[in-house]
Each structure stands twice: as C-alpha cells, then as structure tokens.
TrEMBL record:
Name of the molecule in the record: Ethyl tert-butyl ether degradation EthD
Organism the protein comes from: Rhizobium puerariae
Recorded superkingdom: Bacteria
InterPro entries documented for this protein: Dimeric_a/b-barrel
Length: 107
C-alpha cells in the first residue's frame, strides 16, 4: 500500500478553526473520496505536540494500492478541482503544505 500525506505546516487563523474543519468536511472530503483508486482518506487534526516541534494543525492521509494508482489519481481531473477548492481553505491558513509518499509495511 502507498500512503500520500499532505502536511499543513503553520496555523489556522484564530477563530477560524471550526470554519476550517467544516470546509474540509463538506467541500474537500467529497472530492478527496472521489479520487480514482483511493482506498482510504483520513483527516487528522492536531491536539498536541512535543515542545519545539513544528505545528501541523492538519494532516491529510490517502491510501492507494500502488504507485501507479497514486500516479493515476494525481493526473485525474478531480485533483485539479480539489486544488482549486483548496484555495478557499488556504484563506483560513497561514503556512505551507508539503506532501510525502510512504510505503505502508504490512505485517
């Protein structure tokens, strides 16, 4: 399994936390769930971190069967649509988003 994670490094604007979560749930989650080949979508919201650790108020995690399935999803029209919708989310966020791809070790 291949996991692609988007780390939202920074901060949600003060007082916008609930609006941010609602935007993710109702505008972005349906798009993320419609990526071709996606097996799982998880959104993680930070509740605490080690002292001095960078702030990641949200992490998006998606799972695919293979690197080829991920590549197809990243080339799909829904990805470009979700990027456009993400602009509205970024109006409530200061920071950057970076992506990492992991190989999930299955025991």
């Amino acid at each position: 399994m291949i996991i692609r994670q988007a780390f939202f490094e920074g901060a949600i604007h003060a007082g916008k936390e609930e609006e941010f979560r609602t935007y993710v749930a109702y505008k972005l989650m349906p798009l993320w769930l419609s990526f071709p080949g996606v097996r799982e979508v998880r959104v993680l919201y930070n509740i605490e971190r080690d002292e001095g650790a960078p702030a990641y108020p949200m992490v998006l995690s998606t799972m695919y069967d293979s690197r080829e399935a991920l590549a197809a999803a990243l080339e799909s029209p829904v990805r470009y649509e979700s990027r456009e919708v993400t602009r509205g989310l970024l109006e409530m966020f200061d920071g950057r988003i970076h992506h990492h791809v992991f190989d999930l070790a299955l025991n």
